Automatic annotation (TrEMBL):
Transmembrane segments: 44-66
Organism listed in the record: Virgisporangium aurantiacum
Sequence segments annotated as region (Disordered): 66-95, 165-196, 211-234
Protein origin, superkingdom: Bacteria
Official protein name in the record: CU044_5270 family protein
Taxonomy of the source species: Bacteria, Bacillati, Actinomycetota, Actinomycetes, Micromonosporales
């Protein structure tokens, strides 16, 4: 099996940002509706049929992994050699409210050291994908996993992304029984899309790939080769995004550390990007997406991270899920909000409402993962059990580094023309 080809066909080269998913949903809505949708939801993980739709829309389907790879450093603020070992022991009940948990995490975050600086901001995470496999009438679900890393240069405009297929297995006990009944296969053909026959060289596999796919956003051409680069008037690259607002590393570090001021800044971005905000519930969902952007993959200071937790604590509709294990088996607690779609969005994507949650450690302030549950499966997602955990992105490392990223071995964009398999 050619692992690089497998990865190219199985998913987008880079994990999608919130705005990438929103743009895909907006385009789909406009194609189906009689008029463009004026409002759309913030959602990081959008379940779509595995295969052609996911690849063409740039959306990754997430899933809970039952036997994940060993977790990396536990802290979102970790640096090599200083991270605490992850807590993976038995869960202890935690009945504190969302407000209490978030304020506890905020207090612990302020004890953490500043992430400092370096040539590259490195974000690494584990991601899952729920995939339906098997013969017609005997289908079951597997959980495919990906190990991802991305390097953001502080002064240059490109990014480097590394993705490796990290293996798969049946998603639940019922899926495991169906898998055994099917002969316990060690691989499954990748759906090549409507009208395309199976390719024997393109398969999901139980085993992890031995190589990774590395791409550079400008394909090594540099900014002078027609690559569109976002820069500030001072010439600094705006690499980091919050709800579609692109910021430099210094701008991210300079965000308000006062919760009220940070909330107002986020509301300003929500208004600028025309995100839902007409009701408290809509504003809460949009704010949740903004805080999620801040907590995951952005080089914020401990003070801004603490403020972000407090913004979450004051959001309408935020609830505590208590003690949970994240997708890599680390212990934490979770707070959640329900994401409801507009009528236009329901026409475009009828999978149903979602509960989106952030898993974190109230004892260290570490942000662990972002997860999605499908509350009312419908249409093409009807095979997913109600309330199932269908998506996660689990942080394994976020830090500054002076080490160079690996050299690119693949193009930054993999596309298929109309009718191509």
């Amino acid at each position: 099996m050619d692992e690089l080809e497998l990865l190219a066909g199985a998913r987008p080269v880079s994990a999608p940002s919130v705005e990438t998913v929103n743009d895909a949903r907006r385009r789909l809505t406009r194609q189906i509706s009689t008029k463009p949708a004026s409002r759309w939801r913030v959602r990081l993980l959008v379940p779509v049929a595995a295969g052609a739709i996911a690849v063409s829309a740039g959306i990754v389907v997430g899933a809970h992994a039952l036997r994940p790879d060993p977790p990396g450093p536990s802290g979102a603020n970790s640096s090599r050699g200083s991270a605490r070992p992850p807590d993976t022991g038995p869960l202890k009940p935690d009945n504190r409210s969302a407000h209490e948990l978030l304020f506890a995490a905020a207090g612990q975050t302020l004890r953490r050291t500043d992430p400092g600086s370096g040539r590259y901001w490195l974000s690494s995470w584990t991601e899952g994908q729920l995939i339906r496999v098997g013969q017609q009438g005997a289908e079951y679900a597997i959980m495919g996993r990906y190990a991802n890393s991305r390097w953001y240069p502080k002064t240059d405009s490109f990014t480097v992304s590394e993705t490796r297929w990290a293996g798969a297995e049946p998603a639940s006990d019922a899926d495991k029984a169906a898998w055994r009944k099917a002969g316990s296969p060690s691989s499954w053909p990748i759906d090549q899309g409507p009208g395309c026959p199976p390719d024997p060289n393109r398969n999901y596999t139980v085993d992890a790939a031995g190589t990774s796919r590395v791409s550079r956003s400008d394909d090594g051409a540099g900014a002078g080769a027609g690559v569109q680069v976002r820069r500030t008037p001072g010439g600094e690259p705006s690499q980091f995004a919050v709800l579609g607002e692109h910021l430099t590393a210094d701008q991210v570090r300079a965000l308000p550390s006062d919760p009220a001021a940070l909330r107002q800044w986020l509301i300003g971005v929500i208004e600028k990007q025309n995100l839902p905000r007409q009701t408290d519930v809509e504003l809460g969902e949009s704010l949740f997406g903004g805080v999620q952007n801040l907590l995951f993959f952005n080089p914020i200071t401990p003070q801004v991270r603490a403020a972000a937790y407090k913004v979450l604590a004051g959001m309408p509709g935020i609830t505590s899920l208590g003690a949970v294990k994240d997708g890599t088996g680390r212990n934490g607690v979770a707070v959640s909000i329900t994401s409801n779609d507009t009528v236009e969005e329901q026409r475009a994507d009828s999978a149903g409402p979602y509960a989106v949650s952030i898993v974190f450690s109230p004892d260290t302030g570490d942000t662990l993962s972002f997860e999605t549950r499908l509350l009312k499966p419908a249409d093409y997602m009807s095979w997913v059990p109600k309330g199932a955990l269908i998506g996660y992105q689990a942080v394994t490392e976020m830090r500054w580094t002076n080490d160079e990223p690996p050299a690119a071995n693949a193009p930054s964009v993999v596309t298929r023309g109309p009718g191509e398999c």
